[in-house]
Amino acid sequence: MPGAFGASSEGEFRLRALGFAEGVGFAAHREAREEAQHEVMREILRSKIASGDLKPFRSMIRKAGHYVIRMEELHVDTRSGRTQVEVDAYVDMAAVDQDLATLVLPRLPEPPKVSCLIAVESDGAVEIESPGIVETTLVAGLENLGLAATSHTELEALFKASDFHEAVLGDVEKAGSYARETLADVVVVGIARLESSEAAEAGITSRTRAVLELKILRGSDGDLLDVLSRSAAISGIDPEACREEVLSDVAKKMLGDVTVATVLSVLSVHKQDEVLITLHNPGSRERLSAFTSVLQQEPMINSIEESFFSDRLARIRLGYTGSLGYLVDQIRERSYEGWALEIQEVVGREMTLVMIAAE
After folding, report:
1. Which neighbouring-strand residues pair with 355?
2. DSSP letter string, 11-60
3. Is the pLDDT confidence value at 4 over 50?
4. Reading across the β-sheet that carries 301-309, which strands appear in turn?
5. 23, 81 contact by CB (below 8 A)
């Protein structure tokens, strides 16, 4: 029976599953309950792993009981000398995600690219520093964990200051549009809000609190993957020192959450029936249309989805199960409104192309 997912209390996730065992009695009943736990883990992993290959994660399936906080037994059937149990399992999803990310990160063919853009709001004023304490702390922490993290300052040649502010302060659509143009696998956009108040203790002048709220977005299509929030507070007599320390503290608290979200987002998009094309310098809609028209002629391409377009960058997602080598050969030999394609990179199911003037 397929698992039935459902939200439960904070930190728990409910999933209904069946477990089977040969025989009847106490031992068979226990074995059937254990098999139900294993099926719960298989169902969760299938929902998170695009490839569907669970072999690298057998250790997590074997210790499924470690993640199941509790189980409610709904039904037991012992007909035909076989025991079947139906359960509702309540799972600690934070622990699952943490262990899954830890297991996956060393296996990735290359470190995920993460671009960070963090603003700070204090006394009603929003400032995007170049880069600020939160952004610097996050980037350094992510790099130490093996991710290819960068600050928004590396994108200052592509974006105006107003673009950065819109990405931080605008809605999800604005943040998604910014994410699609960064060329990162994952984009972290957010704001740290500072609050200061008088402290009650004698001799301590103020208490400073920071609340860091982040959006985690996929770079390829700008989809919102997660929304995270952490807070930290400190008391002291030096307001500037308190400000710096509390911003550093809240960024360190957020580091684990961002790492997990990044790794799982990359894991979820490695689909073998899709190809992601990043096209530099498309220049005009006419040129891009000429390119997609060629793609539409390929019988093995069953869908073409444009996720971003500007005169300097376009992203296209193809439904395609064939060989990338064949596809590269087909598109490289064509002309597109007097322009040609140059293949910059092909990694996995991702292609990076650039439009150049035809000779």
Report:
1. 341
2. TEEEEEEEEEEES-SHHHHHHHHHHHHHHHHHHHHHHH-TT---GGGHHH
3. no
4. 301-309, 313-320, 274-280, 350-357, 339-347
5. yes
pLDDT at residue 200 tops 50: no
Contacts of 306 (CB under 8 A, 6+ apart): 288, 292, 314, 315, 316
Asked if residue 290 has pLDDT above 80, the reply is yes
Three-state secondary structure call for residue 184: coil
CA 205 to chain centre: 41
Give Dmax over CA atoms of the chain in angstroms. 79
How far is residue 286's CA from residue 170's CA, in Å, rounded to a whole number?
Answer: 30
- pTM of the entire structure? 0.69
How many Cβ atoms from other residues are within 10 Å of residue 359's Cβ?
A: 4
Residues 6+ away with beta carbon under 8 Å from 359: 340
* Percentage of the residues of the chain whose pLDDT score is greater than 70: 92
Cβ-proximal residues to 167 (8 Å cutoff; 6+ apart), any chain: 117, 174, 175, 177, 178, 179, 189
Structure tokens that stand for 207 in this block:
């208490």
**Nearest C-alpha neighbor of 33 from the set 67, 64, 54:** 64
Output the CA torsion 155→316→329→51 (10° steps).
Answer: 100
Q: In this structure, how many other beta carbons lie within 10 angstroms of the beta carbon of residue 95?
A: 13
- Whole-angstrom Cα distance, residue 324 to residue 315? 17
Q: Is the peptide bond before 131 cis (omega within 30 degrees of 0)?
A: yes
Q: What is the 3-state composition of the chain as percent helix, strand, coil, each rounded to the nearest 5? A: 40, 35, 25
